[in-house]
Amino acid sequence: MLGSTHGSLSTDPRSARAVACGERPAPTVHGAADLDVSGRPLYAPVPDLDRFFHPETVAVIGASDAEGKPNTGITRQLMAWAERVGARLLPVNPGRETVFGLPCHGSVAQLPQPLDLAVLLVADPLPVVEQLAEAKAKFAVAFASGFAETGAAGAAAQQRLAEAVTRSSLRLLGPNTNLNAFERFRDDLEGPAIALITQSGHQGRPVFALQELGIRLSHWAPTGNESDLEAADFISYFAEQAEVGAIAAYVEGLKDGRSFMLAADRAARNKVPIVAIKVGRTETGARTAASHTGKLTGSDAVTDAAFKQFGVIRVNGLDELQDTAQLLARAKPPSADGVVVYSISGGTGAHFSDLASAAGLPLPVLSEHKQSELHQWIPEYLNVANPVDNGGHPVGDWRGRKIIDAILADPAVGVLVCPITGPFPPMSDKLAQDLVDAAERTDKLVCVVWGSPVGTEAAYRSTLLGSSKVVTFRTFGNCVNAIKAYLDHHRFVADYRSPFADAPRTLSPSVRKARPLLCRGQQLSEHAAKQLLRAYGIRVPREQLVNSAAGAVRAAGLVGYPIVMKASGARLSHKTELGLVQVGLTSASQVRDAYRELTDIARFGNFELDGILVCQMVEQGVEMVVGVSHDPLFGPTVTVGLGGVLVEVLRDTAVRVPPFGAEEAHAMLRELRGYPLLDGVRGQPPADTEALVDVVLRLERMAMELDDSLAELDINPLMVLPRGQGAVALDALAVCR
């Protein structure tokens, strides 16, 4: 299967169920194989969730109209929702003949017609799920809690539920979910919508409330414990909906990293932005998320890397989630990257410009011609280079609109931001109206920061919020972050190419050389680990493994002085600290003495050796660390950073999840705080970054091909030589799975 090159859907283990569930199989990437070399899928089918959000028949299992019962309120809400979406509601409860005047059925088997959706208001959903599976129902929602979020017993119960669903064509939302999918959405709002995904329903409330500010929402998927349907399924579905302008998500734990990457890839290819809060940046947050959703949160650094690779915009607060999602949903792609700040006050403009510049927003200096034009309406003594300070008075008359139109007409300007720190009628009222009117006549982004804490002013509530073109914020910080996300997103999708398109489908010849070196559950010696590197074409120093002093002297002559001598054994990780490394040896006598000392230390320390390595000494270059590890959610990962002791002191590393290409490997290097060292500092020559990238890509291939047997590999240090001279792995550690 690893070497498969056909494009049949049947090679995907989920495909039979996907077809049975009526899912739309996504086309294979450029007609290539369905799996990469590690046996992981290269695409995922899109669940056909139309019948979930717009069913024709809805059964409420456990329906009630008894006063004071929790199920009664839920039944009433579902009846109202079914009426809105045009669905027939079928109550099911063996203890009742009617519910709210509707005939009530005793069991699923007694229902008069096939089901699109069943809502389970029962404590134990497993027996009902089995009945629904037999009845060929399409979707079900399990509200019950007490599953994986409660511990081992609950996790076992959830596993039984998931297995029952897997054996059927039924798709299940939950358990431990709520009614958010069946909320009343405003249908009087126009334009692209936000689709919302949350694992905690309450955390989605602020985004849902955006409708009261005129922002359209189209869907809400409360995924709960994700025993079956997960956030990735809804991302894939929403990314295919023409009405969805942005996806907003509150994620506590990912069910499967690969599924998330495939869904995010689909969104990136369709140019649909994903804005997400991901809980688990800290140990406390990760622990709390696990107790809430019952899933692994995974390494946050790996999650962050996957987000970057697929253009997912990560935010920290619910207010940021609202503001960034609404901007990305509503704004058209920028015609230019330039941001101009326009204000009544020079102090306001300077303050906002400082924040914008610190965030990396491009604030171009307006041309001399444009400045002269603006000075027709703005006094000469005021700065109009960017930020543009109008001094206040021009906004109160006909000049205000002229200024705004002139700025927006500049081809270098893609975004106009007007921070209004407080209401100052009539000036602020006139300014707000001019901005709204100008926004109606341009495709460029117009943003306003309304800084008044009151928020009841007519200029804000009616004029600004009444506009479908102007994007209004309440804080400088959220405005800056949202604009940056907007520009970054469109820059990202403009050049995006799916990494799954170029992922290797067939095993390389290196695998045949590498696999015999791996020992299940064992740590390899440095010598064996370097053999593994050689199998993948990664350069190591000239060296020989010897078992006698005389052999060491002969090897030193072949390798060439000066040399390094190191003990090599399967359980030696920190050889320098143990005194098992000697450097700069220049004579046969030093070699004999070093051999004796190294073997004595090993004998007294009871260290088992496979020999002594006599190595070429490589001195000039930049020490880096490159490694492979296995993440429980995302699988194999590749890390690069400053090497030697600096990796432990500075922790200056970047990580990526395969598959990725050379461009992403270069991006990893640019993320490092120590990147200037590779460019050459204090007279040092620039390092061979192309050789470093080549090593990263070779390790990526190794990580994918040996994922079932390689748990961890570290090259530290990898000496990156001056440009054009390559890179050499001076030490290596490998642990087998």
Automatic annotation (TrEMBL):
SUPFAM superfamilies: Glutathione synthetase ATP-binding domain-like, NAD(P)-binding Rossmann-fold domains, Succinyl-CoA synthetase domains. GO terms for molecular function: ligase activity. InterPro entries: Acyl-CoA_Synth/Transferase, ATP-grasp, ATP_grasp_subdomain_1, CoA-bd, NAD(P)-bd_dom_sf, Succ_CoA_lig_flav_dom, Succinyl-CoA_synth-like. Pfam families: ATP-grasp_5, CoA_binding_2, Succ_CoA_lig. Keywords: ATP-binding, Ligase, Nucleotide-binding. Residues 530-568 form the ATP-grasp domain. Transmembrane segments: none annotated. This is Acetate--CoA ligase family protein. It comes from Streptomyces silvisoli.
